[in-house]
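Researcher: Please translate sequence to structure tokens.
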Amino acid sequence: MRRPLLPLAFLLLALTGCGISATGPERAGAAATGAVPPGTRAYDARLDFLGPWGMQFVSRRSESPVGPQQAVDLLLAGPTTAERERGLATLVPETLRGRVTALPARGAVDLHIPVTVPQLEHTAVSQLACTAANAAEIPGGKAPADVVVRVHEPGSDDTWNLRCDASGNAYPAG
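Model: Translation complete:
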């Protein structure tokens, strides 16, 4: 009695199909990006923004090596629309745009700001210092955590010497 039901079961299974509809191809969005064509080299600027769960890094593609000044300028321009949609923000005041200088030195960066450090949020100082420290072209071949960022304030010969930890927070170089 079981044998006559077996072909009927196979027939019903074949008629139900595999669940794929008979529609044609559908658009799924933009083509994939990020692959570098053979024979070219890609560079990234690593920028430090504030995210919903603390500091977050963003990579921005560049056609040439990115030094501290270029990286700081990108940071000062703020997050892109896509980055803002992901919840990223900056606490660096817009009034600093075009007024911060980041000069590479051997194993260090001299960061000249137009305000005193206490006038800035701690996060803003971290964003500026760590973005400069993570710039691709620091002379001396040092890892970002080993780079000393010397923050220069107006009207003072003293500097704030900072280093950055792996999570993007600046702390005294000691």
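Researcher: Any highlights?
Model: The two ends are 87 Å apart (CA to CA).
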